[in-house]
Design goal:
This protein is an alpha/beta fold and 239 residues long. It has ten helices and five strands. A five-stranded parallel sheet has the order 2-1-3-4-5. Helix 9 links the parallel strand 4 (158-162) and strand 5 (194-197).
Length: 239
């Protein structure tokens, strides 16, 4: 009798095993989906862009010790960057709409892993244009924080800052952005292996007003003519 019960139990478990395996697979898939969904809801800003960089690196190896451009959309939209600087190992790691806070957050993803010999930064414009009205002093402190992270981890790298441009759509922040530009220039003058790349004057007309012909319709992002000014100004600084 006992032997018969054991046989029936084994048979029952044999029939039940495929069901249990299917249930385990289903629960695993469900758990994975919930985890990914939860992460996507709580992921920090621009995480998708950072993942895209990582995927790009897995498909095509970036240059060793590149000249790395990082910052906001003015770099992101510079699609002709490599062609504009032939012979230089440039790598574009700008991600659109970013602030200095975002670049600081992802410095260990988009700057340091590449061990660049030179880092060129364009950022701060979006910080000043945020609805919470960040002060010029706060933006300067953010830049110094980013500078400190790069310098501590890449002591031999050259660090350059492209001055914040006078976008016609952001005239309300011109006073603050000029304060940031001046303070960053002064700060970098006291540091080794640095450069302040001043594109601001070339983007003004004879009356000292922004040259609107350099911008697309949003009066924020640039046309090729704007990037040509940047190319000429940046080229002498490239290592």
């Amino acid at each position: 009798m006992q032997r018969e019960k054991c046989r029936n139990h084994r048979e029952h478990m044999r029939l039940k095993k495929p069901y249990l395996n299917s249930m385990k697979k289903f629960l695993f898939i469900l758990f994975s989906f919930i985890t990914l969904f939860s992460f996507s809801q709580s992921a920090p800003p621009f995480w998708k862009e950072i993942l895209a960089f990582k995927k790009q690196d897995s498909l095509q190896q970036p240059p060793a010790h590149p000249i790395l451009f990082t910052g906001s959309s003015s770099f992101t939209k510079w699609t002709s960057l490599a062609a504009d600087f032939p012979g230089y190992p440039v790598l574009n790691r700008g991600f659109g709409g970013s602030t200095l806070v975002d670049v600081i957050r992802y410095a260990y993803d988009v700057i340091l892993p590449y061990q660049p010999k030179q880092v060129i930064i364009y950022c701060g414009e979006n910080d000043l244009a945020t609805p919470d009205s960040v002060s010029s002093k706060e933006v300067i402190n953010r830049f110094k924080t980013l500078f400190g992270i790069i310098r501590q981890n890449l002591p031999a790298a050259t660090i350059d800052f492209v001055s914040i441009k006078p976008s016609p759509s952001r005239k309300v922040i011109f006073k603050k952005l000029r304060e940031v530009n001046a303070a960053v220039k002064t700060f970098l003058a006291g540091q080794k292996n640095t450069g302040y790349i001043d594109i601001y004057p070339d983007m003004l007309n004879s009356k000292g007003e922004p040259r609107e012909e350099l911008y697309v319709s949003d009066m924020l992002h640039m046309k090729p003519g704007g990037y040509e000014i940047w190319r000429k100004r940046i080229l002498p600084f490239l290592r």
